[in-house]
What does this fold into?
Amino acid sequence: KAGVTQTPRYLIKTRGQQVTLSCSPISGHRSVSWYQQTPGQGLQFLFEYFSETQRNKGNFPGRFSGRQFSNSRSEMNVSTLELGDSALYLCASSLAPGVGSYEQYFGPGTRLTVT
Amino acid sequence: EDQVTQSPEALRLQEGESSSLNCSYTVSGLRGLFWYRQDPGKGPEFLFTLYSAGEEKEKERLKATLTKKESFLHITAPKPEDSATYLCAVQAGNYQLIWGAGTKLIIKP
It folds into this structure.
């Protein structure tokens, strides 16, 4: 069974630009969560999508947005990039909220560097 | 306020020296507690799920236990390849996951 895939794996952008990251969950998983991870802040929850609807949202500015498609694939977008947005962005998939076990399985991440 | 605290922040052990990592939590309506292992630059790898106090799970040199207030990840006779950051997450009653900051484990040969 294929794992969670994220593209691109590495990205270098300039301040003020925008970026779109993609995530394909494990087959059969319908919930996708996004996290930002930095050395100083650890794993920070961005948002969770299930059935194309945002279910939960972390404490991030509106520059961070996401969406989920009918095939459960998800994208997240960051507009007007700032230097502080440099981080490892992780996507995690799980079956569905409240359905059996709720383990999340993570992708390899997208390393975003903002210069 | 829901909270998860992991200790210690970092732990250095000699190969073969057993020890435990701690994850203490305060949440409303625990649905599950999860342990993950993360290697540098990679996504966290799922290890265990614990649902109720008294539950234990084992995998190779790792054993996770759960009480009403905390979980322990016991590492028996660790090897250098066990070096990683170990993350704990708790699922609250509203299904939201609360993550600990992690324990960085270094095993010296």
About this structure: The longest strand of chain A covers residues 42-50. Chain A has a mean pLDDT of 92.
